[in-house]
Amino acid sequence: MIALLLLGFFLSLDNFRVSIALGAFQFKWSRALRTAAVFGFWDGISPLIGALIGHYLGQVIGPLADIAGPIVLAGYGIFLIVRSLLTRITEEPEPNEGIVLLGMPLSLSLDNMIAGTGLGLFGFSPLFSAVVFGAITFLMSLIGLQLGKFIARFIPVRINLIAGIALLTVAIWLGVPALLGGN
């Protein structure tokens, strides 16, 4: 059980880092809850899917999972930076709902799918693992969103620019070890 909790915590850290960047948009409480719930849902459903798919697909997706997430984050981070630099400071649109609620959480959950495959092979309950991972990610994402919101109050620059730079930084942080062959 402790191993499952630790694994869930460490696998949720990518969502936590992204949530801090998204928190700069200072979402209302209801949107922060919805965003954290979607992050938690995808991080919960992924190990369930991974355990059900099995070991073979885990070996095929494994190398791609570590690269796909950072690519999506980098792409969105670059988009936010460019958009911020091309708009006036009074125009600070919130990020695209579809990307925040589907694209990012789904790409960040691929590692949980691989973990779920491994946990299934070790005999852990796929459903219990899914609930634990989802709950931990929900909490970590909600904390990250609130932390990002708090930090954004004290930084007198463009929110899109900060969020874009933060997402690009997280993408590099996650992607460089994957590209170099390590985790």
Automatic annotation (TrEMBL):
Key words of the record: Cell membrane, Membrane, Transmembrane, Transmembrane helix
Superkingdom of origin: Bacteria
Residue ranges crossing the lipid bilayer per the database entry: 67-86, 98-121, 127-147, 159-180
Pfam families: Mntp
Keyword Transmembrane set for record: yes
Signal peptide: none
The keyword Cytoplasm appears for this protein: no
InterPro entries linked: Mntp/YtaF
Name by which UniProt lists this protein: Manganese efflux pump MntP
Organism from which the protein derives: Ktedonosporobacter rubrisoli
